[in-house]
Amino acid sequence: MLSRQAHHALKALLLLAAEPQAWQSTHRLAAAQDLPEPMLEQLLLRLRRAGVLVARRGRTGGYRLARAARELSVAAVLTGLGEPAAEPGWADRQGVARGTDDPTPADQVTAALARRLERARQQALAQLNLEDLLFDLRSAEASADDGSGLLLG
Predict the structure, then answer these.
(1) DSSP category for residue 63
(2) CA–CA separation, 35 vs 8, rounded Å?
(3) Count of other CB atoms within 10 angstroms of residue 112
(4) Is 54 domain-assigned?
(5) Domain total for the chain?
(6) C-alpha–C-alpha distance, residues 144 and 82, integer Å
(7) What does each of the 153 residues of the chain score in pLDDT, given as a tens digit?
(8) Which of 45, 93, 126, 136 has the least CB density, counted as fewest CB within 10 Å?
(9) Does the residue 134 lie in any domain?
(10) Domain for residue 99, yes or no?
(11) Range of 31's domain?
(12) Residue 55 maps to which CATH number?
């Protein structure tokens, strides 16, 4: 699950990835998403501190990606926002009844499944990058234009 903050930050990063050489203002990015500027500014500042973005002051300033979109994983973005790519303890809370000192074999199997799912989630977030998301965005925009529909995976 993506938090609302991660959702908004990724949308802004996709706008930046679409024009990697352009400096884009917080005002422009917020207007494109119909978001309050101060809220988006806080997200962008966190991403700048994490090395995902670079910033330039002045009339022609703004933000842009610190590296090529293919070099910025979704996991790095989430970490930059202060959201762990992994959910500590999530897998351990799954499958085993609370207060059970002696879990059943079925409890152990479902707990192991939860750990496998968490590892797969972590791996997917580390492998998925902004260039992949930008490709999906452009595909979605193209399919919306011709009405043929699109299924993204």
Answers:
(1) E
(2) 8
(3) 13
(4) yes
(5) 1
(6) 33
(7) 789 999 999 999 999 999 999 999 999 999 999 999 999 999 999 999 999 999 999 988 999 999 999 999 999 999 999 987 655 555 555 545 545 678 899 988 998 999 999 999 999 999 999 999 999 999 988 888 765 555 555
(8) 93
(9) no
(10) no
(11) 1-71
(12) 1.10.10.10
